[in-house]
Amino acid sequence: MKFTLIAEQLFDGESFHQDVPVTIEDGLIASFDTALGAKEVRYTGTLVPGFIDVQVNGGGGALFNTSPTVACIETIGKAHARFGTTGFLPTLITDNVQVMAKAADAVALAVAQKSAGVLGVHFEGPHLSVPKKGVHPQGFIREITEAELAIFCRQDLGIRVVTLAPENVSPEVIRLLVESGVKVCLGHSNADYDTVVAALKAGATGFTHLYNAMSPLGSREPGVVGAAIESETAWCGLIVDGHHVHPAAARVALRSKPRGKMMLVTDAMPPVGMDDETSFELFGTQVLRVGDRLNAVTGELAGCVLDMASAVRNTVNMLGLPLGEALRMASLYPAEFLGIADSVGRLALGQRADIVLLDNQHQVLANYIAGNAVYIRP
């Protein structure tokens, strides 16, 4: 199938261009010309690279932990497609090994059948720090065993990300995971600076939701935050919802890190895409929604009612970044972290046609994954 998208403006991942047609054939970007015989689809707005979210717990009323199935993954993907997400990692927070195994089986099937947008899986836990557990259930936090290693090291799960606390997982095990192809992120950790540096030397390459659930930066104890901001090579996920990170703290990190090492994440929960959902249950605890904020009844922040398009807008409006950089934080930089920037994250010849149409307020009008329209705003 061949067709051409034409909008007022196009952002290719680096620069904005006016009135540039994009011809798509067999799911890939074939040319930046109008192709002979191709159907033309004209839009008002801006075409941008699709958004990539490496931390998605839920959406559309579904939570991956509660229902570790392909149907759940597809419900989550459909909910986030409305907001420009074209690639995501279904994220399982700390749970028992049986649920982890079911989640892995579901992801393997979703990857095999090419479910729209599914890139792999993110296991956030269970090898975390109890003092920095947040809403993760303490009863499931544990030392790593052969059972979890066997799941993490499966080769049929697409891209694998594991968040762990380096004070509870040795550099030797981190190195083993990395050698198996796992991308190790550090988070939910109370580690000291030296322990974090040792984990980075062992191959860890990311930090999960910077500032949140990690030992803070102090003048004599740099902690996880200090090591994360200092590192020139590691990527940091950033939740820009106005609740998890103060805009000033976010700006400090952005100015300190090399360009390209900060990426937007949602840490999304079931209410995303569900305007009428006010609460849900997480491991027997009620999580309440008040506006765009989620809190457990015990007081902790419990993930987000955040989507990637809102994260982009917040990055522009709250942090003062140019739109182009906010878009890169939502597409190119996570693609580079995941090692897939040769196929997604830009609008370039041969790239997969993951393309989002935004209006002048940066709201999503349309979403194409591999050239297939998965969402068109009514």
From TrEMBL:
Transmembrane segments: none
Top EC class for this record: hydrolase
Catalytic activity field: N-acetyl-D-glucosamine 6-phosphate + H2O = D-glucosamine 6-phosphate + acetate
Gene3D superfamilies on file: Metal-dependent hydrolases, Urease, subunit C, domain 1
UniProt keyword terms in alphabetical order: Carbohydrate metabolism, Hydrolase, Metal-binding
GO molecular function, one term: N-acetylglucosamine-6-phosphate deacetylase activity
The protein's Enzyme Commission number: 3.5.1.25
Pfam families, per database record: Amidohydro_1 (PF01979)
Domain called Amidohydrolase-related: residue spans: 46-362
InterPro entries assigned: Amidohydro-rel, GlcNAc_6-P_deAcase, Metal-dep_hydrolase_composite, Metal_Hydrolase
NCBIfam families (UniProt xref): nagA
Family membership: Belongs to the metallo-dependent hydrolases superfamily. NagA family.
Protein name: N-acetylgalactosamine-6-phosphate deacetylase
Species name: Shewanella cutis
